[in-house]
Write a structure and sequence with these properties.
single chain; 377 residues; alpha/beta; Rossmann fold; 3 domains; six-stranded mixed beta sheet; 12 helices; 41% helix
Length: 377
Amino acid sequence: MQNRGNARMRIILSAALAAGLASGGLAFGSLAPGVSAALAESGEINRAVGGYSFQDAAREAPSTRNFRSKDGKLTFAIVTHTAGNGFFDPVYVGAQVAADAFGIKLVMLGSESPVDDIPREIAILNRIVQDPTIDGVVLTTPQSGAFDDIVRQLRARSIPVATTNSYDPKLVDRNQISHTGQDASAAAIGGEALAKCLIDRKVKGGTVIFPNLALLGNEEVNRRIMVAYQATVKTLNAAGRLKDFKVDAGTQNIGLDIDRDDLTGSVASLIEKRKDVVGAFAANAFVTGALGDAITRLKLEGQVCSFGFDLGPRQRDLIRSGALTGSLGQQPFLQGFWPVVQLYLQIDRGISAANLDTRAQLVTRETVDMVGRRFEN
């Protein structure tokens, strides 16, 4: 009886399936024009449920190239606050790759300074606002509130805006503007790695320092210092070792301020004055380079658990030499690539602002030769 019942159920299911195929979108008897039964059976799809072809839908809108400037082409500008230290090189590369892919003219601009130069970036942006050929702008916003007027002017002129790298959570119209970058919470990876380095090396005690140009007001960098400091303290405490170390990130936990005009000298001086520095963490490209150079100057390679940010040629060389134990990459290529794509999609598709977290990669001497091969770091 059970076998007979199973056979009857199979017949019922087969009939139901046949009825569904005869009446639904999978019916081979009602295939779209030009679609063979063999193609349909393969699972390949080339027409939407709505009846249009995906190829037609993928075409650019006829009006896209005449957006705003109405000159038959799209022109985007990307402007950064420190183009002089090499960090933003892969950002510009990523932006150019995206621009080439979508047929966009890209204007690459930025402060020539190797350290944060916010007034210079704002001066450049003020010129861009007045340029009638610009159809979209990518900019960094390292100082909270400093770029609100620029953004208002750009948006008043119907120029779409995307931010990259440094994040200002209070930026005017923040929810309507996409951001590409690494969340400051990623710095916890570096802080944890620093603490584990001290524990693994069986360091008995000493001082851990967090040098920074805190007074420049780069809120993203200051948040990284705070997060890394908290992660270092948490990891040492969990191991029962916090009592053995003095972890010093300044009175506000945003770093021990150093001299922007003598980065390496001031970091070296800080290490010498403390006399017992066993660990250090820096939160951006130029302070990380200065930390590694200071350790090299003092001949302390391999003796200090030293971690930093970014993976430019200078940082990679310092990792190889042992002056840096490791450094966190931000995948800066994506910080140029995605905002250009985002602006294009806003213009051509009306896609709303979409953020991209580029996350972090911790690179040490064991893995350093795996990065930087294709201008991505």
